[in-house]
Amino acid sequence: MARPCSLASIQASIQAPAACRSLAAAVPLALLSIAQSAAASDDTREREHLAAIVRQIDMLDRLARQSSAAAPSQRSRYYFDYRRLDADIRRIRAGVTDYLNPPRAQPRDPSGLDGQYRRETSGGNTGTEAGK
Hints:
The protein is mainly α and 132 residues long. The protein has one domain (20-103, 111-120). Helix content is 63%, strand content 5%. It is built from two helices and two strands. It has helices spanning 7-70, 82-100; strands spanning 78-80, 118-120. It has a two-stranded antiparallel ribbon with strand order 1-2. The termini are far apart.
């Protein structure tokens, strides 16, 4: 059965899709706004965590220096290489600090960590080279 065509029914049919269109446009904008605020809070949280890591690296550096000072002056065949550890700590600290306070727009080429902290003295009886 055909519905009567009146001005009120025409206006109602035109306004309903317009309301749906504005709602359809508002929902993605609201979701985008929520996502941006969540990303901003994630960025803030990440920066806070990285700043805490820098403080912990500073504490680790102090402990390593104290251990180095307390190390026996008479080295055994194998000993802990504090100079390599210090170099790696400085490299890690610089990487985190550069991320938190970028000095330039271009990323720099990261160098790998050494990771070998056990060294052999040159006075060993095995005939191996020093520094391995």
